[in-house]
Amino acid sequence: xxxxxxxxxxxxxxxxxxxxxxxxxxxxxxxxxxxxxxxxxxxxxxxxxxxxxxxxxxxxxxxxxxxxxxxxxxxxxxxxxxxxxxxxxxxxxxxxxxxxxxxxxxxxxxxxxxxxxxxxxxxxxxxxxxxxxxxxxxxxxxxxxxxxxxxxxxxxxxxxxxxxxxxxxxxxxxxxxxxxxxxxxxxxxxxxxxxxxxxxxxxxxxxxxx
Length: 210
Ligand code: AP5
Ligand code: MG
Ligand code: ZN
Known about the structure:
The chain is α/β, with parallel strands linked by helices. The protein has helices at 13-24, 31-41, 44-55, 61-72, 90-98, 113-122, 161-175, 178-183, 197-209; strands at residues 2-7, 28-30, 81-84, 105-110, 123-126, 132-134, 153-154, 188-192. Strands 2-3-1-4-8 form a five-stranded parallel β-sheet, with helices on both faces. It has a three-stranded antiparallel β-sheet with strand order 6-5-7. The site of zinc ion has 8 residues, from loops.
């Protein structure tokens, strides 16, 4: 099953993708994590992406489309995958169609902008594996240390309040129209993002079983 998690920054896409990936045994493809890794390693892609990410703007479509095309072709995706943070524009969604990458379900995780700003200030991300935590809603077992890999937890540079506001603006302009794009295919389920993590997981799993 090929799944897209759609939603604003901070809606919980990464958090839910990690849980669902474990439960279904299919990989998560997070373009945000792939790009952050590329920036950290100073690769050509990373050098292209860094300024856009720091500003809370979108990285150009052709960069993203290239990354995802290569990633979904790998062996571990043959039983399905979860796309977290891609597509984010109509041309990216169209590229999946053109490349014959079928999508079975789109989960739209929805939440008000005010709740998001508050969530972002408490987010911590593992510098090594990308796992996501929140200082109150989803704390790690030991402060500052990743449960999954022991890596160091850091604050994402683009979680500064001003950058978050820009990411929200970009979301409303560029990404929100994707819901209608996929509704026309009849594959969208809306899930409430402003509820405890495990309740959102239940709703998503129920949607995927239908
Ligand atoms: P990306 O990394 O994808 O960031 P984003 O979409 O802005 O989303 P976030 O990762 O901020 O939020 P999330 O929905 O994953 O929430 P999370 O689970 O962490 O992209 C970063 C940048 O890369 C972009 O700005 C762009 O520059 C570039 N990029 C990436 N993909 C691109 C593409 N396709 N095209 C162009 N550019 C691209 O949760 C947030 C916090 O809330 C956490 O602390 C979490 O613990 C907590 N939380 C989660 N769920 C709950 C809950 N139910 N209750 C309470 N707290 C919760
Ligand atoms: Mg994320
Ligand atoms: Zn980790």
